[in-house]
Hints:
Blueprint: H1 8-15, H2 21-36, H3 45-55, H4 60-71, H5 74-81, H6 88-94, H7 97-112, H8 116-126
Helix pairs in contact: 1-4, 1-6, 2-3, 2-4, 2-7, 3-7
Amino acid sequence: MPALPLPLDVMCGLANEASLLPRIRMAIAVVAQEVFAEASDTPGTLMRWNLAKTVLSPTPAQAAGMAVGIVCSPPMLAAAAGTGATDPATMAAAITDDQILDAIRAGWNAVAGIRPDTAAQVQETTT
């Protein structure tokens, strides 16, 4: 397994960064709206839709809970590590809105409880 680009305590600080959490809350709501607009034959649609319904207006606690996984996404870790800083606010400022949205989109199925192999099987049977 490759080494982490940041120490765990630095990643923890980033996941709890006050300037990042509101952005994560908004991004969760944006992705929830995208899920509502998906075709009904999207693999895992019921579980994806139920998650979207649950987090459409994400609470601070939901955003904080999801922030841990979101911060661990490779593009976000790379952006944070690329600053050369360990200050959470500095690292958070280097993370783009698109990186946050992409991390949430990439993790949506896992948070919804859809196994990767199950989603692939559903896709194969519907195409």
